[in-house]
Amino acid sequence: MGLDRGRVHEWDNEGKPLLMSGTHQDITEQKRAAMALLESDRKLGSMITNISDVIGIMSADGIMQYKSPNIEKYFGWKPDELIGSDGWSTIHPDDQERIRKEFQLLLLDDNASKTVEYRYKCRDGSYKA
Predict the structure, then answer these.
(1) Contact 23/12 with Cβ under 8 angstroms?
(2) Alpha helices in the chain, H assignment, sequence order
(3) What pLDDT, on the 0 to 100 scale, is given for residue 90?
(4) Residue 23 CA neighbour count, 13 Å, CB half
(5) C-beta separation of 72 from 122 below 8 A
(6) Exposure of 90 by Cβ count < 10 A (0-12 exposed, 13-18 middle, 19+ buried)?
(7) What is the Cα–Cα distance from 49 to 63, expressed in whole angstroms?
(8) Which residue among 1, 5, 22, 96 is buried most deeply as judged by most CB within 10 Å?
(9) Average of pLDDT values for 16-20?
(10) What is the mean pLDDT of residues 99-123?
C-alpha cells in the first residue's frame, strides 16, 4: 500500500505542467498496525461492555473520566451523565469517608489493588450494594 504526494512547480503558457516533484511512501506496515489497533479496541470494548462489573476511572481530584457502558444496565445511568461529574456524589454518604480513605491509599502505590464494598447511587435515587 502506498501514499503518493505530488506538486507542480511550473506550468507552460497553455497551463500544462512543466516541472513536477513527488514522493511515494510504502505505508503497508502503518496500515496493518492501524487495523490491528482497531481490532484490539473492538475486542476490548466488547469485553468491557459484557463483563458483570462496572469499570470507572476517576482522577485524583475525584472527577469521573470514564464509566463503562454497563453502568446503565446495573444502575440506570448513561456513561455520559457521569463523565465529568464528582465521582463521590454516587457513593452513599455513610460510605464516603471510608471509601475516600481507601482511594487515597490506592493513590500512594502505582500497583495497588483493593476490593471494597459500598452502596452506589442509582439514577432513580435508590442505592445498591
Answers:
(1) no
(2) 28-50, 71-75, 79-82, 93-107
(3) 96
(4) 5
(5) no
(6) buried
(7) 22
(8) 96
(9) 92
(10) 91
Percent of the chain with pLDDT strictly greater than 90: 77
Instruction: Give mean pLDDT, residues 7-35.
Output: 93
Distance CA 84, CA 63 (A): 6
Q: Which helix (H) or strand (E) holds 30?
A: helix 28-50
Are 29 and 23 in contact by the 8 Å Cβ rule? The answer is no
Give the mean model confidence (pLDDT) for residues 45-55.
85
More confident residue, 120 or 46: 120
Q: Which amino acid is at 85?
A: S
Asked if 49 contacts 68 with a C-beta cutoff of 8 angstroms, the reply is yes
Backbone angles phi, psi at 112, to 5 degrees: -70, 150
Asked if 48 contacts 69 with a C-beta cutoff of 8 angstroms, the reply is yes
Contact predicate 81/64, CB 8 Å: no
User: In the numeric block, which cell numbers belong to residue 51?
Assistant: 463483563
What is the chain's length?
Answer: 129
Which tops the pLDDT comparison, 57 or 47? 57
Q: What is the pTM of this model?
A: 0.65
